[in-house]
Structures are given as C-alpha cells and as structure tokens.
C-alpha cells in the first residue's frame, strides 16, 4: 500500500495523517492493532507503528482497482469485486491470502530496486567432479515500482525495524527493512 501511494504520488513519508483510532467503512469498523488513536502523525509514523486507519485511508484514496493492480505487480491475488470495506481491510493486510513464497518474493522486489524476480530455491547444480552442471540465472518478471520510489520505501521500511514496531528484528550494524502486520485473533470465549 505504501509502495502504491508513493508511486502514485498520493503520499510522501512526511505527509500528515490524523488517526481517529477507528474508521467506519461500509458498516465495518477498522481499528488500530492497539485499539488506540495515535493522533496527528506523519505517514512514516503510520508505517512504523502499523497504524491501520492510516493505511485504510490511503487504500480508500487509491481505490480498489489501483490497490489490486499493485498487489498483482508484487505477485499477489487476482482481480475480485471489492466493496469499500474490502479495500480498507486489504490496505491493512487482511482479506487477502498469500503464501510464504509470495510474501518473500514481494519483499525481495523491494530489496531488488522495485523489480520482481522469478523465485528459485536452487542456485546451482554441480556435477560429481565439482563443475557446474546448471546455473540458475536471475530472471526478471516485471518492475513493480520506480527505482526512486523503491529507495523511499526501503528507507521507510528500515525505520520500521530501527525505531518502529519491528524493532525486535533489529541487528546492530545491519540495515534491515520489515513491516509488522495486524492479525485478527480468535475470541476463545465467544468464538
């Protein structure tokens, strides 16, 4: 969602968002993972703190067509008919099923200057004598976002790990980009 917002020039890291804590979309309530309002924040803070209302607001501004177009560019999903609440929940990482390989491939596109690569597990196959039998080559699938947009996104995602909600993944001396997510938990009492 951040990549789409940056690419479409709808948002920059310093843009201001007002987080009410919850928003109503098509009769459905979208709330933050904490249940609290973060108040007036920058978009960088929206990403760093995984503020669902900010992502939902940006997703609604993008609209279902553009949102799903970027999801497909990064290797997710197929086009579906979406109501506004589907757009909002997709913007916070819900309502779309992904495999671990799809997630790794999408995040790798961000690491690869915005270019989606065909994933492969084996780098090379060697003969018994140690010579290379087959070398797997880098295979570009498509560009997801422009290089300058990718640099901005990487910088924002590094701050998620260095000073935001993903700080437990931080390793001193390394630049690590990441993104936390909001999971829905089953109510063990009421189902």
Report on this structure.
By secondary structure, the protein is an alpha+beta fold. The protein is built from 6 helices and 8 strands. The chain has helices spanning 2-7, 43-48, 52-73, 84-91, 100-111, 147-163; strands spanning 16-19, 22-25, 28-31, 39-42, 115-117, 124-126, 132-135, 140-143. The radius of gyration is 19 Å and the shape is globular.
Overall shape? globular
Rg, Cα atoms, Å: 19 Å
Mean pLDDT: 90
Task: Profile the largest sheet.
Answer: 2 strands, antiparallel
User: How far is the N terminus from the C terminus?
Assistant: 30 Å
Q: Topology, please?
A:
Blueprint: H1 2-7, E1 16-19, E2 22-25, E3 28-31, E4 39-42, H2 43-48, H3 52-73, H4 84-91, H5 100-111, E5 115-117, E6 124-126, E7 132-135, E8 140-143, H6 147-163
Antiparallel strand pairs: 1-4, 2-3, 5-8, 6-7
Helix pairs in contact: 3-4
Which features characterize this protein?
single chain; 191 residues; alpha+beta; two-stranded antiparallel sheet; 8 strands; 16% strand; globular
Care to give the gist of this entry?
This protein is of the alpha+beta class and 191 residues long. It is 37% helix and 16% strand.
């Amino acid at each position: 969602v951040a990549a789409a917002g940056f690419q479409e020039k709808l948002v920059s890291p310093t843009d201001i968002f007002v987080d009410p804590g919850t928003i109503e979309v098509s009769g459905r309530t979208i709330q933050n993972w904490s249940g609290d309002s973060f108040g007036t924040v920058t978009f960088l803070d929206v990403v760093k703190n995984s503020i669902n209302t900010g992502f939902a607001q940006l997703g609604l501004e993008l609209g279902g067509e553009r949102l799903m177009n970027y999801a497909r560019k990064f290797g997710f999903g197929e086009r579906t008919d979406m109501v506004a609440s589907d757009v909002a929940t997709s913007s916070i990482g819900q309502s779309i099923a992904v495999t671990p390989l799809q997630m790794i491939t999408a995040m790798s596109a961000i690491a690869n200057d915005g270019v989606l690569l065909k994933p492969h597990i084996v780098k090379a196959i060697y003969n018994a004598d140690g010579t290379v039998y087959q070398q797997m080559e880098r295979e570009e699938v498509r560009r997801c976002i422009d290089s300058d947009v990718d640099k901005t996104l990487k910088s924002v995602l590094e701050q998620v790990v260095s000073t935001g909600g993903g700080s437990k993944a931080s390793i001193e001396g390394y630049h690590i980009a990441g993104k936390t997510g909001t999971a829905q938990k089953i109510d063990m009492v009421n189902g």
